[in-house]
C-alpha cells in the first residue's frame, strides 16, 4: 500500500473532516441537544423571586464533554504526522491563564467549585484543538457551525406553537429568554456571514434566517441581544473596512475606539453618562438594578484586588458567599454581577484580568491577519469578538456557564495560537 493511501487517502480525509466537525458538535449540543433533553425541567425565574435557574452538571454533560475531548485526543494521535504546532508565546499565555484560574482554588471560598467548573472549559478547549490543527480552511469549520445555527433557529420558531411565553419574555427551547436572545444573536451573525459565501445554498439559508431571527428576538423581549444584533454588524463592517483601506491593525483600532467610548460612557461629557444611556434604552437609569450589583462587586474587588475570591467561587455558592449576607434581595440572589469584566476581576483579580485581556488582544491579531485572507470569515470573527466584548458589559458570559459564546471564544483562542504548515488557519 502506498504512502499516499496511508497518509493522504480515505482514512486521513475522514479524520480531518471529523476534526472540522468538532466545533459544530459543541455548538449543536448547547443550542439543541441539551435544551431539548434537559432544559424544560428547569423553570425560568426572575431575580425578584430567586436566581435565574441554572443547570447543574447533568449526566449528559459529564458524558458529552469528556467524551468529545477523548475523541479529540484520539484524532490528534491518529493524525500526529500532519498536525501543525502551537505558537509558543500564545500557548504559554493560555497555560498561564488557565493555570492561574486553577491556582485560585488555593484561596477560594469553595475550592472544589473552582476545579469542577474550570475542568469543563479545559475539556471544551481540548475538543476544539483538532479542528484548528487539522482543518485545511477555517471555512470547513464555520460551514457546519452555520447549519447548526440554522437548525436551532428553525426549532425555536417551531417551539412558538408549544412553549408558553413567561412573564419576562419568550424563552424558546431554553431555560430563559436571555439564552434565546443570545443564541439568536449569534445565529444572526452567522446568517450575515452566510451572505458573503459563494455557495448559493448557504446564502439563501442565511437570507431566510434573518427575519426569523429578528422575530425571535422581538418575542423574547431580550433588548440587549436585539440591540447588539443591530449594532455589531455595522461596527464590524467599519472595523474590517478600516483595516483593509487604512491598514490600521485591528487591536490598535479596538483600543483607539474604546478610549472615546469609555470617556463618553463614564461621564466625560458634562450632563451625560451611562445612566442617561440606560434611561433611553430601558427607561431605568440603573440598568434594571445592575448598578447596585456593580457597586457591591466593586467593594468586594477592593478587598482582594490582585487575586480575587476564586474562579466562579463567589456567586451561587450558597451561604459561603458574601452576597448572601446582603439585605438587598436582588444582590443576595444574583447569579453573577451582570458584567463579565467585573466578575473576572472579582474572581481572579488584576492578574486574571491582565492575562485575559492579553488573550483578547492575541485573538484580535489573529482576526487582523484573517481579514486579509478571507474577508467574510474575518467579518464574522470580528462580529463575534465585538459581540462578546459588548455583551459582557451588561451580562456575565466570559467563562460563565456552557454557552455558545464560550464555544466561539475557545475556538478563537485555539485558532490564535495554532500554526498549520507554518501559517495560521484561514
Structure keywords:
single chain, 426 residues, 68% helix
User: Got a strand count?
Assistant: 2
CA-based shape? globular
Number of domains: 1
Query: Helical residue percent?
Result: 55-70%
N to C succession of SSEs:
HHHEHHHHHHHHHHHHHE
- The helix count comes to 16
Category by helix and strand content: mainly alpha
Low-confidence stretches: 1-11, 43-57
Radius of gyration: 21 Å
- Provide the spatial order of strands within the biggest beta sheet: 1-2
> What does the main sheet amount to?
2 strands, antiparallel
- Average pLDDT over all residues: 85
Strand content: under 5%
Q: First CA to last CA: what distance? A: 33 Å
Oligomer: single chain
Question: Can you put this structure into words, describing what you see?
Answer:
- The protein is an all-alpha fold.
- It has one domain.
- Helix content is 68%, strand content 1%.
- It has helices at residues 3-8, 10-37, 59-78, 88-103, 111-134, 138-159, 177-194, 200-220, 223-246, 250-265, 274-282, 290-303, 329-333, 340-373, 375-391, 404-417, and strands at 85-86, 418-419.
- Helix 2 (10-37) runs antiparallel to helix 16 and helix 6 crosses helix 8 (200-220).
- The chain is globular and about 60 Å long.
